[in-house]
Specification:
binds zinc ion; mainly alpha; 53% helix; 10% strand; 10 helices
Length: 262
């Protein structure tokens, strides 16, 4: 059940399009990848751009221009050649690379287009639609509840993305305080790995690179624990993707799946 009807979704999009910058980007995206707006099943705006079509998921919001512009920036980036890695092959029981990959896909795009959002005159605090993004307080409580010895660098890194994320509700001082909290709480060697992975994310954000494959595996390798994975930008294995460690074959993956009883 959606939280809103198609008509309500359409009305929010129409309201967002009253903003000239939103209208211009909407027309640009729509010209190369026709846009369909649909009510989201949950509380979050979102979008999928595939060849020939962009689907925008609409959720209740007080700021339809900002929410729509954010999704149009995702669409513009993909139309402009940014490659999404969403194919995963596994040969070992290790951390779920798909969880890290999905988070990075979103974050890497945000780092690239945040300045376009503010250039259009929007408040950085509204970069994420209502309810999106974890509050600093929530992340802090989460970190507090974790056992520093038993928690992986990867788990900490996924929370640390909130410190790295551009825009949002927190002030610079609050962001810095949360960062310091990580350093107080997380063991040094894990924080070193988190910081090295964070530097990869920031470097991608400052580059013109459209293919995040190397960044994804570099982050995974720095964090450790993601052995035995291949991640690809298409199903063309292994040419269109990268391994987190040693190369393997589809037969290896099939043998692993069989051992797992799949
Ligand atoms: Zn986004």
């Amino acid at each position: 059940m959606s939280l809103m009807t198609q008509q309500e979704a359409d009305e929010l999009v129409t309201k967002g399009l009253e903003n000239a910058a939103v209208r211009a980007l909407y027309d640009e995206v729509n010209a190369s990848s026709p846009i369909i707006s649909v009510p989201d099943e949950g509380h979050c705006w979102g979008s999928i751009t595939r060849p020939g079509e962009t689907e925008i998921f609409v959720a209740p919001t007080a700021f339809p221009a900002e929410s729509l512009y954010h999704e149009l920036l995702h669409a513009q980036m993909k139309i402009g050649g940014y490659r999404q890695y969403d194919q995963y092959v596994q040969t070992a029981a290790s951390f779920p690379l798909n969880v890290l990959g999905d988070a990075l896909d979103n974050e890497l795009q945000h780092h690239r287009f945040f300045s376009k959002f503010t250039d259009a005159g929007f408040d950085p605090a509204r970069f994420y639609h209502d309810g999106d993004g974890e509050s600093y307080e929530h992340v802090r409580r989460d970190i507090e509840s974790m056992d520093p010895a038993g928690t992986s660098a990867a788990t900490y890194f996924l929370r640390y993305l909130t410190v790295l994320s551009p825009g949002g509700h927190g002030s610079d001082a609050e962001r810095e305080a949360l960062k310091q909290f990580f350093f107080e709480r997380v063991p040094n060697e894990k924080m070193d790995a988190v910081e090295a992975a964070a530097a990869d994310v920031l470097a991608f954000g400052e580059s013109d690179e459209l293919d995040p494959g190397e960044t994804i595996v570099n982050v995974a390798r720095r964090l450790g624990g993601f052995h035995g994975w291949w991640v690809g930008k298409s199903q063309n294995f292994p040419d269109d993707g990268v391994f987190t460690g040693d190369a393997f074959t589809m037969a290896d993956a099939a043998a692993f799946a069989k051992r797992q009883g799949r």
